[in-house]
C-alpha cells in the first residue's frame, strides 16, 4: 500500500485544523442581545424573588442582607416605573445591588447540611445575575453604537419634509415648534388653522440632540421665531441641570445669530394618577416635581434676562397637588387632546405677543344715495 508523503499529510492536518478552528469560531454564541422590555422585567423580578427565598434559607442573611435586599427592591420599583426598562444606568444600579448580595451570601456562615433546594436557588440566582450583567453590557454596546451613528440626532426624521416645505409667504410669521414627544404630539393644523406653524418635535429627544439638529430643522427653514419645549427627557435620564441650561442657551444663541426669535416654554408637570393602569405611569420618580419647578424657575429667569417670551404651560395644566391634572394626561406625562386644548391658547397668546396681529383696515362707510 502506497504511503502518503509526510509533508502532504502534515499539510492536510494543518488544513483540517484551520477548518476546525473556523467552525468552532462560528459555533461560538453571538454577543448577548439586549433583552426586550418584557423579558428584562421578568428577569429582574425573578432575581428579587430568588434573593428573598435564599435569604430565608440562610439565617445570617436575614439581618445582614436586609439593607441590600431592600435596595434591590427599590431598584426594581424604579425600573418598573421607568419609561423604558432598557436603561443602562438603572440596570447598573440593580446589578450592583445583586452582586453585593451574592458577595455577602458567600461571606456568611451557612447551615449544615445545606438544603438542596436552597443550593438550586442560589445557582439559579447566580445564573440570573450573570444574565442581567450580559443585558447591561449589551445596553452599553448599543448606546456606544448609537453614539457612533452618523445620524445620532435623527436628522432623517424631517429631511424629506424639510425639502418639501414651501418658502415662507411674504409677510407671514413662520414659527417652528421645537422639542420632544410633547411637541411632536401637537396637531398644529387643528389648533392653529391658517397659521404658518411648523412642527419639528421628535419623541424621546434630549436638549443635546435638539441642539445637534438646529441647522437642519430650524435655521434652514428660515422662520421668524421658534417655540422650544425641552428638558423633561433630560431630567428623566439624569442630565445635570447645568448641562440642560447650557444646551438651551446655545439653542437661543444660534437662533438669535440667524435672526430667529426664540421663545421658551415651561416644562409640564407630571403625575402618578394613572400608575394603577400601568406602573410606568408613575412619572414622579424619574421626573421629580421639585426638579421640574427648579428648571421652570431657571427658564423664566433666563427669558427675562434675555428678553425672550416665556410660555407658561405649567400653570395652565397643574392641579393643587403640583401634578398635571388627571384628565389632561392619560399616562401622567403626555397631554391628551384636552391638555393640548388648554395649551393652545397659551402658545397663541405668546406668539401674538411677539408678532401682534395686524388689524384689518376698517371698511369704508357706505356711499349715500343722492
Brief rundown of the structure:
This protein is of the alpha/beta class.
What does this structure look like?
The chain has 370 residues and is an alpha/beta fold. The protein has two domains: 112 residues, Up-down Bundle (Four Helix Bundle (Hemerythrin (Met), subunit A)); 194 residues, Rossmann fold. The chain contains 16 helices and five strands. A five-stranded parallel sheet has the order 2-1-3-4-5, with helices on both faces. The relative contact order is 0.08. About 5% of the residues have low confidence.
Please name the defining characteristics of this protein.
single chain, 370 residues, Four Helix Bundle (Hemerythrin (Met), subunit A), Rossmann fold, 16 helices, 5 strands
Give the spatial strand order of the biggest sheet: 2-1-3-4-5
Runs with pLDDT <50, length 5+? 6-13, 21-31
- The fraction of residues assigned to DSSP E strands is 5-15%
SSE string: HHHHHHHEHHEHHEHHEHEHH
Radius of gyration: 29 Å
Into which percent range does the helicity of residues fall?
A: 55-70%
Task: Characterize the largest beta sheet: strand count, sense, and whether it forms a barrel.
Answer: 5 strands, parallel
N-to-C CA distance: 136 Å
What assembly state would you assign to the polypeptide chains in this entry?
Answer: single chain
Task: State the CATH superfamily name of the largest domain.
Answer: SGNH hydrolase
State the name of the first-level CATH class of the largest domain: Alpha Beta
| CATH topology grouping of the largest domain | Rossmann fold
Give the overall pLDDT as a whole number. 86
Write down the overall geometry.
elongated
| Helix/strand structural class | alpha/beta
Count of runs of 4 or more consecutive helical residues: 16
